[in-house]
Amino acid sequence: MWDDPIVAEVRKIRQKIAAKFKYDVRAIAEDARKREKKSGHPIVSPRRRAKAK
Questions:
Q1: What is the DSSP letter of 21?
Q2: Is 19 within 8 Å of 12 (Cβ atoms)?
Q3: Of 7, 9, 17, 22, which has the maximum CB count within 10 A?
Q4: Do the Cβ atoms of 27 and 21 come closer than 8 Å?
Q5: Spatial separation of the C-alpha atoms in residues 19 and 45, rounded to whole Å
Q6: pLDDT tens, position by position, 2-44
């Protein structure tokens, strides 16, 4: 199987962040929201899909 160095780096960072918050998904998401607001970049929410008829 082919190893992608970018994927490996992303996984390493993901593991580091998860360990920092003791794998608490809510704490990870809250931290992500804080970093998102602090970044100063525009935040785009996905549009809701219309219900199928």
A1: T
A2: no
A3: 17
A4: yes
A5: 27
A6: 899 999 999 999 999 999 999 999 999 999 999 999 998 988 8
Kind and range of the H or E run holding 17: helix 5-20
User: What is the extent of the structural domain holding 22?
Assistant: 13-39
Is 51 contained in some domain? no
Tell me how far apart the alpha carbons of residues 10 and 16 are, in angstroms, rounded to a whole number: 10
- Domain assignment present for 46: no
Q: Tally the residues of the chain.
A: 53
- Longest alpha-carbon distance in the chain: 45
Q: Using CB atoms within 10 Å of the CB of residue 17, give its burial: 0 to 12 exposed, 13 to 18 middle, 19+ buried.
A: middle
Give the chain's radius of gyration (CA, Å). 16
